[in-house]
Specification:
By secondary structure, the chain is mainly α. Helix 13 packs parallel to helix 15.
Length: 463
């Protein structure tokens, strides 16, 4: 079965494509700056200032649990964003999630500590983290579809990498700001006031992100759906009735990347390497600088993966990526445990090769897996489920394993297993590179990409 060329979707020219890519990259970077800032501060600040009365070990685990708690609410954000995004459009949802995330982050920077107001402090902190989780659950799907649905067919991987590189860019900015503040406010000054500055900066970033996203046009796919009055009244229900198995498999594909990535984005490595009661006891500043450098290399490999996926397909890029990620996991702790900052940096940089090659193509792959009428719901909910399975409690699990066993070997086994499970799920899915995304081809899009289920969609790539 060969498909004819796509109709008017995508209709944007090169200039508009570049504007969309810039808007999704900058907007997503701001969103994830906020999200990762909390995760990094959990093991460096919040365990002391908000959960300190629990005792050192328990305070750290509870602080990481508060990081993971937000993931429990990401599906709620994904359900809401998917439902309204498939009915109201991608652009409106992106504006709402940006304001929610930035507002919560700014307020965290103003919170009193446990010493000032007692247990009200951690309660307020956790509430604002939940708001961040709801926002993050809705952000990614909208950014992905704005990029991929505007893209020419042969550049979906490249343009889809735009919101993906916003994630390591957010890590780079958050780690960079914390590293700067450890220099400006070293020692006790960092815990007294220095940590608040990066959170308060989010207010400025909200304004920047709002104006950048405000000027971008709505997705051409959604405009066609709306013009034809084909908007689905209950897209989430339709998604699970027809594509439940696909959602589960695609979520596992993403979970392996998330579990490994949250060793740094979730703050575990930062806490493990700098904990004065731990085996390494490294200075906070150099470790944050190492994480910042690794975020930059993660960004590069994420972009490269998007480009490569346009050449060899999304599935083949995942296979290559998970093999490299598994190797990076095996090297991670032997290098970190040397206690030399150079080796810590090398370990994190090597890990980003596999992280990038299991992430850059994800936008394009997810968008190509789901039919147009339920696509926002599909990509958002799948991503949120994958985040829970993979990253939600990865730092907590890693901390508990180290405390229970006294070594990092169990953490390596855990991360390696997650990577192999994700590789297995990727092998079960067919590649749909080049499939038309517009509503004219809904029948073709509904054919399951799961091997052994339904007919195999044969697509002709349109330049």
């Amino acid at each position: 079965m060969t498909t004819p060329p796509q109709p008017s979707v995508p209709k944007a020219n090169l200039r508009e494509n570049l504007r969309v890519s810039a808007a999704t990259t900058v907007g997503t970077a701001i969103e994830w700056y906020d999200f990762f800032l909390y995760a990094a501060a959990a093991g460096l600040v919040f365990n002391n200032l908000f959960f300190g009365p629990l005792g050192s070990g328990a305070a750290t685990i509870v602080a990481f649990l508060s990081v993971g708690l937000s993931f429990v609410f990401r599906p709620l954000g994904a359900f809401l964003a998917g439902h309204f995004g498939d009915r109201w459009g991608r652009r409106k949802i992106l504006m709402i999630t940006l304001i929610m995330m930035g507002g919560a982050t700014t307020l965290i920077g103003l919170l009193p500590t446990y010493e000032s107001v007692g247990w009200l402090a951690p309660v307020l902190l956790i509430f604002l983290r939940i708001v961040q989780g709801i926002s993050a659950g809705g952000e990614w799907g909208g950014a992905v579809l704005m990029s991929v649905e505007h893209a020419p067919v042969h550049r979906r991987g490249l343009m889809g990498a735009a919101p993906q590189i916003g994630v390591p860019a957010g890590l780079l900015m958050s780690s960079g700001m914390l590293a700067i503040m450890t220099s400006i406010a070293p020692g006790d000054a960092f815990l007294e006031w220095g940590w608040r500055v990066p959170f308060l900066l989010s207010f400025v970033l909200i304004i920047v992100g709002y104006f950048i996203r405000h000027g971008v046009e709505e997705s051409p796919v959604f405009e066609e759906i709306a013009a034809r009055k084909e908007v689905v009244s209950n897209p989430v229900g339709k998604l699970f009735r027809r594509h439940g198995l696909l959602v589960a498999l695609a979520a596992v594909v993403m979970a392996g990347n998330n579990a490994v990535g949250y060793m740094t984005t979730g703050g575990f490595i930062q806490n493990y390497a700098t904990n004065p009661e731990g085996p390494l006891g490294l200075d906070r500043g150099p470790v944050l600088s190492a994480v910042t450098l690794s975020a930059a290399t993660w960004l590069v490999f994420t972009l490269l993966a998007g480009i490569v996926s346009d050449l060899i397909g999304r599935r083949n890029t995942y296979i290559l990526g998970y093999i490299m990620l598994f190797a990076g996991v095996l090297a991670l702790f032997p290098l970190v445990n040397t206690g030399q900052i150079g080796m810590v940096t090398l370990a994190l940089v090597l890990l980003t090769v596999g992280l990038g090659f299991t992430y850059g193509q994800q936008s394009a792959m997810y968008a190509e897996l789901f039919p147009a009428s339920v696509r926002f719901s599909g990509v958002s909910i799948t991503y949120a489920i994958g985040a829970i399975i993979g990253g939600a409690f990865a730092p907590t699990i890693a901390s508990a394993l180290v405390q229970a066993t006294g070594t990092t070997a169990a953490v390596t086994i855990y991360l390696g297993t997650m990577a192999l499970l994700a590789l297995a799920a990727a092998l079960v899915l067919r590649d749909r590179k080049g499939i038309p995304l517009g509503p004219d081809h809904e029948e073709l899009q509904r054919i399951s990409p799961v091997r052994g289920v339904g007919r195999r969609p044969v697509v002709e790539e349109v330049a």
